Task: inverse folding
């Protein structure tokens, strides 16, 4: 019965996120997570034992995030099952960002279509970590597509995957790990030791969802395929491992295969050049119109992934 409640909550969460997104008028858990991370980073990220301090921060962060969700859901279910499902759905909806990611991508695409490079660079800088000040139209388009591809898993399907397993508390724990990685999981002098725990936890939790998402992305986007599914899957398994992240390459390689474009290449981070391996075959030059297509690929992937979770959950209900 618990799995069924999770599935109902997941489906309602996808609907809530599709309609409302993340209203600025409502408090958002990720903001609280960010404040906790900032609090500990300022006080602990110095001196010795920074590896241990990083693990301590993550332990506190995950306990607060998962505990907050568990208490709310426990109270709601003790009042009424319907209220419990709704509260769980609302919490899960705060861990995903289908509408927000699509809007962020379109906010880059619109000025780019009008030739306003400066505005497009500024909008892009809100959603990527790389330097955007010197990017041309093709590079801006590539960066946006890569962000949509990577965050299809990180920002949507992975939280849903963990919501199936452990409901909203586990989805919140995943989001806390991912937020920690995005804030301190860097290999620079400042964060190499302190952010180690966040980075490794993020790698571990994304291992299965990223691979499932890449496969589902290709399997469900027939209208956008420029080649056969077999050819796209060959590109996926050939190129996903080229990414410096053990997981991010699966979404990017899948998107590159679907659109018949090439992602990866030269990026700038904090003034330093990063030459990443290229993924996909450049059968079609990247252009601004690929951004909206990438958001359509993302949306179809999220809906089909939700159906996959129902199939997995249904099997689990039957065998137990």
Result:
């Amino acid at each position: 019965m618990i799995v069924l409640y999770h599935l109902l909550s997941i489906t309602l969460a996808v609907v809530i996120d599709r309609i409302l997104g993340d209203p600025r008028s409502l408090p958002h858990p990720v903001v609280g997570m960010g404040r906790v991370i900032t609090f500990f980073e300022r006080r602990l990220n110095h001196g010795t034992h920074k590896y241990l301090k990083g693990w301590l921060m993550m332990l506190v962060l995950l306990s607060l995030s998962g505990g907050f969700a568990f208490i709310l859901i426990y109270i709601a279910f003790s009042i009424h099952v319907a209220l419990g499902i709704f509260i769980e759905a609302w919490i899960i909806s705060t861990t995903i960002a289908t509408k927000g990611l699509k809007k962020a991508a379109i906010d880059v695409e619109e000025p780019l279509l009008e030739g306003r490079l400066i505005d497009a660079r500024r909008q892009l800088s809100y959603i990527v970590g790389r330097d955007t000040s010197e990017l041309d139209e093709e590079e801006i388009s590539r960066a946006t597509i890569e962000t949509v591809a990577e965050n299809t898993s990180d920002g949507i399907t992975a939280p849903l995957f963990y919501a199936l397993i452990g409901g909203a508390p586990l989805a919140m724990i995943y989001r806390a790990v991912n937020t920690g990685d995005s804030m301190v999981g860097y290999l620079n002098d400042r964060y190499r030791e302190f952010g180690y725990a966040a980075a490794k936890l993020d790698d571990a939790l994304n291992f299965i969802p990223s691979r499932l998402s890449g496969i589902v992305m290709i399997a469900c986007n027939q209208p956008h395929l420029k080649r056969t599914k077999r050819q796209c899957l060959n590109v996926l398994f050939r190129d996903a491992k080229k990414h410096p992240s053990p997981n991010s390459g699966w979404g990017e390689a899948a998107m590159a295969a679907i659109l018949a474009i090439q992602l990866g290449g030269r990026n700038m981070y904090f003034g330093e050049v990063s030459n990443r391996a290229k993924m996909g075959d450049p059968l079609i030059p990247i252009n601004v119109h690929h951004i909206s297509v990438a958001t359509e690929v993302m949306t179809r992937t999220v809906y089909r992934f939700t159906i996959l979770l129902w199939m997995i959950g249904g099997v689990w209900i039957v065998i137990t």
